[in-house]
Write a structure and sequence with these properties.
By secondary structure, this protein is an alpha/beta fold. The chain contains 10 helices and 15 strands.
């Protein structure tokens, strides 16, 4: 009898319970692939949007883009990974919610620290690479700059806050509970804003002396987007990279002119790590800062793989803090 492995698929979109556990024959890698037996799997907000039908996907589809585990089979032409290495990968074909996976070798890196906790590595990769490009690739930032980070106690937000602080940027971060505000202070954000009790626009004006911030990292969407425009300084950048409250309406070019010749971008990690060289550079920078102690990865919630539906429900309801992972 052939060996099998289990994974989740979505055959129709909907609530978390639509995720279906199936068994399939074990797949073996081609010459430029690696078979990874998972030790931990990253859960990201985009997974809930695909499952719920908010983002288009060809059905049936798997879920998840990042995983950490052991390289149990390595293709003949792969040189940078050997069998038995503990590895991390990010591959933009959904399908990480499973016991194992075959992925292209150019989307896989060996963990620089082979003793690193798999939960920490899995919680770091997708969100950490997002923080990497947001902090380093959109606009030069450093001492003297101020940034507004929405949802700053989330998986991306906590890493982004620390990365910006490492660059010398002063961070103002929005949260929705007092617990998350305390976590922000602990992770290097001196100016948490508890919404809706506090006005984040007023906070920005107070901290910056009325000038506004160099960058607004807009990850909430329609609920905050219009007022986020009021937070940017002249020539400031609004990076709209998440929209759980809904996609903002069309933005008037005259509004951008009036508010200070602003720039707006809708970036995505898939574009900024599309080339394997960029993926490897981002992963190297991420794991290097973790090794140096400059980035602390908070895995606030870890779930058994079979309880992926509960992980999704908690993530959407805002019951999680930091990164979320599944453990087979």
């Amino acid at each position: 009898m052939s060996a099998t492995y289990g994974r989740f698929v979505v055959e129709k979109t909907g609530e978390p319970e639509v995720m279906k556990w199936i068994s399939e024959p074990v797949q073996h890698p081609g010459a430029n692939d690696i078979r990874v037996r998972h030790e931990a799997i990253g859960v990201d907000y985009i997974d809930t949007q695909i499952r719920g039908g908010l983002l288009p996907a060809t059905l049936p589809t798997g879920l998840g883009f990042a995983g950490v585990g052991e390289a149990v089979e390595v293709g003949a032409d792969v040189k940078h990974i050997k069998k038995g290495d503990r590895v991390a990968y990010m591959y933009f074909v959904a399908g990480s919610y499973g016991e194992e996976r075959v992925v292209p070798a150019d989307r896989v890196v060996a963990l620089p620290d082979q003793t690193l906790s798999p939960e920490l590595a899995a919680g770091a990769l997708f969100r950490g690479l997002t923080a990497w490009y947001l902090a380093n690739r959109l606009k030069p930032l450093g001492k003297g700059d101020t940034a507004l980070v929405h949802a700053a106690a989330g998986g991306v937000g906590l890493i982004l806050t620390q990365w910006l602080a490492h660059l010398g940027v002063t961070v103002i971060g929005t949260v929705d509970t007092r617990e998350k505000a305390e976590a922000l202070r602990e992770f290097g954000c001196p100016h948490p804003v508890l919404m809706p009790d506090e006005d984040f626009v007023a906070k920005v004006k107070d901290v910056t002396g009325g000038k506004g911030v160099s960058v607004v990292y807009e990850s909430i969407g329609v609920a905050t987007f219009e007022r986020s425009l009021d937070c940017a300084k002249r020539f400031g950048l609004i990076a709209s990279y998440g929209w759980p409250s809904g996609d903002p309406d069309n933005v008037s070019l005259m509004t951008l002119r009036t508010k200070g010749s602003l720039f707006i971008t809708r970036p995505t990690v898939t574009q900024y790590t599309a080339e394997s060289e960029d993926f490897r550079a981002g992963a190297a920078a991420l794991f290097d800062l973790i090794k140096q102690g400059k980035l602390r990865i908070k895995v606030g919630n870890s779930y058994p793989l079979r309880e992926a539906a509960r992980a999704h429900a908690d993530l959407v309801a805002g019951r999680t803090l930091g990164s979320v992972v599944l453990v087979p």
